[in-house]
Amino acid sequence: MTILVxxxxxxxxxxxxxxxxxxxxTVRAIVRSPEKLTGxxxxxxxxxxxxxxSLLDLSDEEMVRQVEGCDAVASCLGHxxxxxxxxGPPRRLVTDAARRLCEAIRAxxxxxxxxxxxxxxxxxxxxxxxxxxxxxxxxxxxxxxLLLPPHVDNEQAADYLRTRVGRDDPHIEWVAVRPDGLIDExxxxxxxxxxxxxxxxxxxxxxxxxxxxxxxxAALIPDPAPWIRWAGQRPVLYxxxxxxACTIPAFSIGPN
Length: 256
Prior knowledge:
CATH topology: Rossmann fold
Number of helices: 8
Order of helices and strands: EHEEHEHHEHHEEEEHHEE
Distance between the termini: 19 Å
Radius of gyration: 17 Å
């Protein structure tokens, strides 16, 4: 498969590129610093095609050229945890990238639907499911929207896929992957997937390894069975099992 990855030089995006190359896929990546994507063990460097550019600076025509021939687009875009990254432009990086990439996919008129996989956040509620919020969580979420533009960006990106793409688009299918508190681990172990968060991402956050996010996204794209299971949904990933009793079923995945 040919997969376009945006946000490929980030902490999770780089792991996703490595995982895809090791699985034998061809990876395209739009990056500002191509030197950050070198030396992946087990992958064929000839299968990595880099365009040095800032994604949102590309023309509509160039965006179409980048998505043409791709079976999937994976977005690991996020905001740097610095004053400029949180409060500076572009404040709608994730949302504008989703919109422009989806418009480019439609303009390319693919013969088969292209899979769009968005790395999102467990703190973004899925309005299609009954994900209740306490009064404290609603207040905290309102404060996040006022104080942290990246939270709003994540919400709007997921909502764009939900409302502007939907589940019946002839050219695009999508999954929004929701990790909780991201951590770094050295190897892939068993991890757990829930349709909705069984714990509060604000007041009782879980942990999700970046490796597990990359592993799940890389496994999701080419495999029909998990794709059918999660298409149009927002699965939540945890590295460790949720010990408290809950009625939300979990799906466990191992490293192979």
